[in-house]
Every structure is written in structure tokens, then in C-alpha cells.
Amino acid sequence: MKNTFKALPKAEREKVRTVYIQYLKERNGKPDFEAHTSALRDEFFRVLDSNPTLVSARGRLNQEVFTRNQRRGSPEPGLDRRTLWAVCAANANLTEDYGVKYGFEVKPMKDPEYPYSWVQIEENYHTRLLADCVRTLGVQMEIIPPKLGTRMLLNVLVQLPYYFSNILILCAEAIGLVVFKGLQLKARELFADEPEALKRIDSLFDQIIIDEIGHVRWVHSQMGQFRLSFTRAIIPWIARAFLRDLPDVVELLGKDWIMSEVRKTAETGIIVMDDGRVHPLDVMLGNAKGESRQLQSLMTLAPAA
């Protein structure tokens, strides 16, 4: 597996661009760069919406308690772990959601041969994936903008040339993957007695993680060794700042666990799927081998209904 913080030779960088575009087209289908949508993803959500899955009646969360805690900024004392998980899932992507929507306004991308055009589309769907996870537990989430300071930072970041912003983008993607994987693992623990709901939540988190690893591979391929070494050095510092806006995630997963996983990522440079699964893009790039049926299940946007 390639080290995320070791620069690729020029020939390999060009290969990543070509293969990644092919992968994005196969995974997303026909794009609509005006609406920031794609055909296969819209079909994915059509299937989701027409086949709702809910936890059992005894397992459904209280909407009032959930909403109150999503709006609080930090969980109230004694909040049950299942509701806390739902609040974390609802809030985990709101900073990215704001940044993506702001990017549509100031830096819209419409070139199907440019990966960032597709990345914008993929990121646009992640909040919807998390909203469906929360809805599976019987509650509806709200889209809450991040704090003013975070919004100002995102506004600056979005407008920077990618030569500079890729440093923070790679940090954010790597840290985000730690959080998403942590939430997925915690869901398996908390909702083990709700197998149908857990199956759906698990598959939705897989879709986010598959997208994010693809984004990491692309951003990595765009950076030279100096910027990658600098990124590796600052990731722990960025993670601490990132977590200040996510006290609910810190409460659920534990700051020590999150920072340990972030440091492990920085030390090893290894960013992969969990459970021994191989990412389809890594196979397409010739960096790994995987069983065809498993690869197809990861490549295809097919929700667990």
C-alpha cells in the first residue's frame, strides 16, 4: 500500500488522474455540474427513500431530546449513548457541508475530466447519507452552520489555490476518516440488537468512507514531498483544532482514541478500508489485489434497504 505522505513519481501522478477519472465516472454515472448531482447517486437515494428502514419501536430515539442536543453545541450530561451517536452523525459533516456549498458559489467546477469537479459532487451527498443514518433511528436532523470562526476559515480555504489548500484538505480528509471509521465501529457496538437498521447504517458509512479514501488518493497525487512532509507534521495540531468544534464526537469516541488514530495515520501513512477490504481504486491503480465480488459491492452504489 502506498504511503500517503510519500510523494509519487510524476508518471504515477499522471496515472492516478487518468484512472481516478475513469473510477469516478463508473461510480457516479452521468454528472449534472449545474445541480451538483449525478445519475447513479440520485438513483441510490431514490432507492433509499422508497425503502425506509427503521429501528424497532423500542429502539427509536426521542426527537425532542435529539434536536435539543444537536443544537446545544455540546451534549447534555447523562445523554444516552445511542442519542449521542445520532447527534455525532448529524453534526460530523456540517463543516464540510458548509465548505462544499460555499465552494459551489465561489469556485464552481464543471469539467468532467477534472477530478475536483467530481469530488464536489460526491461531497455534496455526504450530509444526505448521514441524514438517512439518523432517520433510520427515528429522528430528523437539522443543517446547522458551523461557528463564525470556522466559517471564516473555510471561506479563506476555499478561495486559496489548490497548491496551498491541498495541505489542509489532506489533513481534513485523513482526520475525517478517523472520525467516520470511529462512528461506524461505535454503531456496530450500540445497534447490534437492531440488525436491519445497523446493516443500513453500516452500508451508508461505507459509501462515505469509500468516497473519502478516493479523495485522499487524489489529493496525495497532487502534492510533492515538501508539502506532504509538512502535512504529516501538522495533522495532530489540525486534529486538536478540528475536535474543538466536535465536543459530542470527543464525548462518544474519546479524545485519546481519536488522537491515537490520527498519530497512527501520520506515522504509517496508511489509509485503507477496514476489515481487510480493498478499495476498488487501489486495485484499478495496480496497488492492491482484491476479490472481484467484494470489489464490485464496494464500487457500486447499492444501499442496504
Overview of the structural elements:
- The chain has a two-stranded antiparallel sheet with strand order 1-2.
- It starts with 9 loop residues before the first helix and ends in a 6-residue tail after the last helix.
- The chain has helices spanning 10-28, 39-50, 63-72, 81-91, 94-106, 115-136, 148-159, 162-190, 195-221, 225-244, 247-253, 255-268, 280-284, 292-299, and strands spanning 31-32, 37-38.
- The relative contact order is 0.16.
- Helix content is 69%, strand content 1%.
- Strand 1 (31-32) and strand 2 form a beta hairpin.
- The protein is mainly α and 305 residues long.
The overall pLDDT average reads 91
Main sheet overview: 2 strands, antiparallel
Assembly status: single chain
Order of SSEs: HEEHHHHHHHHHHHHH
Strand % is under 5%
How many DSSP H or I helices?
14
What's the N-to-C terminus distance?
Answer: 33 Å
Low-confidence stretches: none
Number of strands: 2
> Globular, elongated, flat, extended or rod-shaped: what is the shape?
globular
Structural class: mainly alpha
Helix content: 55-70%
Rg value: 19 Å
Reading side by side through the largest sheet, how are the strands ordered?
Answer: 1-2
